[in-house]
Amino acid sequence: MHEQRLHVRLLIVAGVALLWMTAVFGRLGYLQLIRHSDYLARAQRQQQRTIEITPKRGAIYDRNMHPLAMSVPVESAFAVPAEIGDNKMMAARLLSGVLGIPRDVLEARFESGSSFVWVLRKLPPDKAEAVRALNLKGVYLQSENQRYYPKRELAAHVVGFVDLDEKGLGGIEYELDNLIRGKSEKIVVMADARQRWFDGGVARKDQGANVVLTIDEKIQYIAERELAAAIAQTHSLAGTVIVQNPNTGAILALANWPKFNPNSANEAKAEARMDRAVSAIYEPGSTFKLITLAAALDQNLTRPDEVFNCENGAVYIAGHRIRDHMPFGMLTVSDILAKSSDVGAIKIALRMGAPKFYEYIRAFGFGQQSGIDMPSESKGILRKLDNWSAISIGSVSMGQEVGVTPVQLVTAVSAIANGGTLYKPHVVAEVKRGNESLPMTGVLAPGEPKEVIRPETAATLRRLMEGVVLHGGTGTRARLDGWTAAGKTGSAQKIDPATGRYSPTQLIASFSGFAPINDPAVTILVSLDSPVGPHEGGEVAAPVFKRIAEQILPYLDVPRDVPLNPKLVQAAYKRDQAENDDSVQDFSPVDFTAQPDEAPAQKSDNKTEPTQPSVTVALEEGGDIAVPDFHGKTMRDVTEMCLRLGLDPVLVGSGLATEEAPASGARVRHGAKITVRFAALADAGTKAGKPAARTRIR
What we know:
Layout: H1 2-34, H2 36-47, E1 48-53, E2 60-61, E3 67-79, H3 81-84, H4 88-99, H5 103-110, E4 117-123, H6 125-134, E5 139-148, H7 156-159, E6 161-162, E7 168-170, H8 171-175, H9 177-180, E8 185-191, E9 197-202, E10 210-213, H10 217-234, E11 238-244, E12 251-257, H11 270-273, H12 276-279, H13 289-298, E13 307-309, E14 314-317, E15 320-323, E16 330-332, H14 333-338, H15 342-352, H16 354-363, H17 392-397, H18 406-418, E17 421-422, E18 428-433, E19 436-437, E20 450-451, H19 455-469, E21 486-495, E22 502-515, E23 522-529, H20 537-540, H21 542-555, H22 566-581, E24 621-626, H23 635-645, E25 648-652, E26 656-661, E27 667-668, E28 673-679
Parallel strand pairs: 2-10, 25-28
Antiparallel strand pairs: 1-8, 2-3, 3-4, 3-5, 6-7, 8-9, 10-18, 11-12, 11-23, 13-16, 14-15, 17-20, 18-19, 21-22, 22-23, 24-27, 26-28
């Protein structure tokens, strides 16, 4: 009996154990097989944190491979609040004193309950060292990349800028962000059971593509300098200069005013960051008469020597009286363009008719985007033909009732210069990843050139445009010394917001032209918004064209096709002799804060106006930082060394470092500007200010 009871008890215990084991193994099987992925994901969320680090963007170069944008390594501070523990207030107080962040802000971050918080990103080298010296538990430094623009404002509207996370926000940085921006670098940070954190390694790292622009930094510098001088002289609200190769559509320089420093773009006003060359719409005024005459000549509706009665300065269209800027009488077609007669242009357009005129306007690219590889391009304003009023043909023929952008207009003028072919304007020459050139597709596709007027028409129009800059035309101040030139002035009235009518004093003064006439090398557009005092295009914009062209053409080795003024030759010789006798060579006479390579020689024999006053570089000596010896260093090495020491590098030229100011070993203060001149090995021994000859662009 006793054995029977014992057997029953054993069976009960075994049954209970079997049930327990079945339940346990069933639960384990459920967790391991069915819920495995859920619990694994939950564990990873608790134990891992993935920090996305700003990727290293590709560099942006000018057409001669001079860097305009690069990425340099910096450090960012982050904290793991769980590791800081009860010392959050002390950590906040110490970090606040070093980084200048309010203590309550840091305390709120540490008490937020987050397992990871940024303290401050992209620290200057001195602040990173100060954080490292604190040696606070739970506070770490992580390497990141920071965008740096060594030439500051130079070509800022073309290059663009980025935000804190290295995402492009303007210019090429934005337009080609998907190519320039490398894949995100993700750092996996692991935690143990006690929430102690350690580095889990890099998940992935992929550098972006490099971009080579058509911009030439020397030509860009000339354009920006002369535009700034014109703004200062005329007190204009804004301005634009574009230099284009008429034979390819490549933009060699694109300058806007106001300008900004992309290294601190968030401090600039929105109007300074606006790329007016592609976004600003304005009525072109008399420069649009080029399109009027191009269409009429191409249709064989008139000829240069045909005489029109300009009605003593007034004409009636549909009962509306339109007055000329001067009371002209009988004028040939050549004189209508040279003297910019509104009445003459209207009569030519009336003979042509609105439908055919509209076709040519569209063919020249107006009323539509040019396709330039830049963001925020406006298509301008061109009403459909069905919406034209009875007087529209008269208004449009003289540049009213139509809105254009500077890039549209310079491209149209280039078509006249090159023989009648319209090329797509572009600023990107090549995109490379490593040594491999990427295909130019999408917005980078070159586009199909199209003939908008016959070569014979273009040749005739070039001769007429030459008359504008010769004696008696409105653009005589654009006449070059040593080269033939052609162009057209424009003085377009702006709408007065208070009255809704055209303002008699607020104008867009412009000049668009090219040189030399028979084999054009460059097309140049100059536009000034609301100049004060003299405000006609021939008075204020044409001289800017002259100053820019007379510096660019010798830089490009364009042969002279007309004799030089003997007085200018003699003056240039005297200046050369004075410079050769000058044995003092240093950085002090030049303002390098925006200057790229050595600026094209200002002593050229075609300079007729006094140069702008020079600015002396202030040497901030007397500090506790010794200036390193940069001789033989690359531009990137110099940049990184300066940023590591807390110095502000001003880089001039390209190649290897040859000179620096202050000299190596000098003691300077934190934040001092260090000017370093670079030169290619072949140019290292040449005298500053005399750049090597360049081949002509074709």
